[in-house]
Amino acid sequence: xxxxxxxxxxxxxxxxxxxxxxxxxxxxxxxxxxxxxxxxxxxxxxxxxxxxxxxxxxxxxxxxxxxxxxxxxxxxxxxxxxxxxxxxxxxxxxxxxxxxxxxxxxxxxxxxxxxxxxxxxxxxxxxxxxxxxxxxxxxxxxxxxxxxxxxxxxxxxxxxxxxxxxxxxxxxxxxxxxxxxxxxxxxxxxxxxxxxxxxxxxxxxxxxxxxxxxxxxxxxxxxxxxxxxxxxxxxxxxxxxxxxxxxxxxxxxxxxxxxxxxxxxxxxxxxxxxxxxxxxxxxxxxxxxxxxxxxxxxxxxxxxxxxxxxxxxxxxxxxxxxx
Length: 323
Description:
Elements: H1 3-23, H2 25-38, H3 47-59, H4 64-81, H5 89-104, E1 122-127, H6 134-147, E2 152-156, H7 162-175, E3 178-180, H8 188-202, E4 206-210, H9 219-232, E5 242-248, H10 253-265, E6 270-274, H11 284-291, E7 296-300, E8 308-310, H12 313-320
Helix pairs in contact: 2-3, 3-4, 4-5, 5-12, 6-7, 8-9
Keywords: Cell membrane, Cytoplasm, GTP-binding, Hydrolase, Membrane, Nucleotide-binding, Receptor
Protein name: Signal recognition particle receptor FtsY
Organism: Mucinivorans hirudinis
C-alpha cells in the first residue's frame, strides 16, 4: 500500500469516526449527563455512586443483566485499587464495558464483502419486523457491495406489502443491483427460488432476500421463513449463508426482546441495529452485543449509504463516552 492509499484509508477512518460520533450524539449526551449526576458531590467511587451508576445504565437501555455485570466489574476494580476517583469514572466505565464485550465477541469474518461460494452466490436472508429499517438496510448493503465490484441480486420476498416491493425497487435501481419480484400476494418462497435461480445463472456474487416483517411472535411467520430456507436450498444447498436480523435501536429493550425471540425461532447469524442517530437509546447495543451469542454486524447512524457501519465494540463504546 502506497503513501497515497494510506492517507485515503486514514481519511476514510476519520470520516467514519465523525459519522459515528454524530450519530451517537443523543445517546452520548444522555449517558454523560446521567454520569455527571451520578457522581455529583462525590470525590470517590462508593456504594452510593455505584447505585447511581447502576440506575444510569439501566435507564440508558443497557439492560439489567449487562448492567449488573458492568457494576460487578467496577466493584472488583474498586476493591482491588482501594480508591477510585470519580473524575476517572467515565474512562473506567469505558474500559470495563470494552473488556466485557471483548470477552465473548466474535469478530466479523466479513464486513460488506460477502464472498462467492464456488459457483454459487453468497446468500443473505434478511429478517425483522415491519418498520425497523429492513429495506433501507438491504439497499445500503447492496450499494456498498456494488461499489466494491460485486454483482448483487435482490429478492423482494416480502410480498404482503406493495410498499415493500416498491421501496426495494427504488433502492435496487439506486444501487445498480438486479431486483427479482412478483406480484403482491405471491408466494415468498417462489420469489426466493426465482432470485437464486436467476442469480446463479448470471454468475452473481451475492443474493439478498427480503422477507415479510409481520409480528415476530407469530408461528406462521417462522414457518414461512423455514419454507423460504428449504426452497432456496434446492438451488443453493448451503443457503442462506447469513441470516441477518434487523433491529430498530430506538425501541430500546424491545429490540433485545425481538432479537431473543427471532433467534429462538430461526437461525439468526448476525444483527444490524438501525436508527441510532435519532435516539438516546444507543446503550441497547451494549446489552444486545453482550447478551446475545449472535454478533452485531452493522449499526445504522444516519441516512446515507456510508452511515451503515460495520460494528466495532471498541469504537462504539469509545464514541459513547467521548467527552
